[in-house]
Amino acid sequence: DAGITQSPRYKITETGRQVTLMCHQTWSHSYMFWYRQDLGHGLRLIYYSAAADITDKGEVPDGYVVSRSKTENFPLTLESATRSQTSVYFCASSDGTENTEAFFGQGTRLTVV
Amino acid sequence: ELKVEQNPLFLSMQEGKNYTIYCNYSTTSDRLYWYRQDPGKSLESLFVLLSNGAVKQEGRLMASLDTKARLSTLHITAAVHDLSATYFCAVDMRRDDKIIFGKGTRLHILP
Hints:
Chain A is mainly β and 113 residues long.
């Protein structure tokens, strides 16, 4: 299916475990983003990427790692999950052209226990 | 560092009334977006505003952009219950390749 998909949709993990959230888009968009959404904070940018093999830190990158070996994939890894990383995570992509916004995946609800 | 501030953060209003949500940002922007989010759902794009003085309308929603004042507004005309949602503005910083969001305005429209 065309679009942007995230997996899993729901995940429960234990403190200290490594977990990877997947994001895949079929549009060949250059730009991809990871946000976390928490009550009272809106959406905060974790990492972003302008192209394959180019990534950069956003507002709240600590505790997260990303990679982008292929244009269509942008996985987010929590190297050692903490309770404070319990959140809803959204991936987004954009082609960067003038009149086009970013499109969002359905989100992953992550609970760290 | 870019800051994006929305106000109010919460708004409860009666059906049929008009109201405006404000979005202020701290540095020069390339473009500004408005999104809507329903509870438990993803974000849906409403408007893309590209230049100073841009105005876009869709149904009861109208968005405008004043780049000199670094201000965007989302105006709701004759609100209806179906417009209850959280509305986000987001500033696109193309020279830095990132998009920064405000905290969102939770809009509750009472029948």
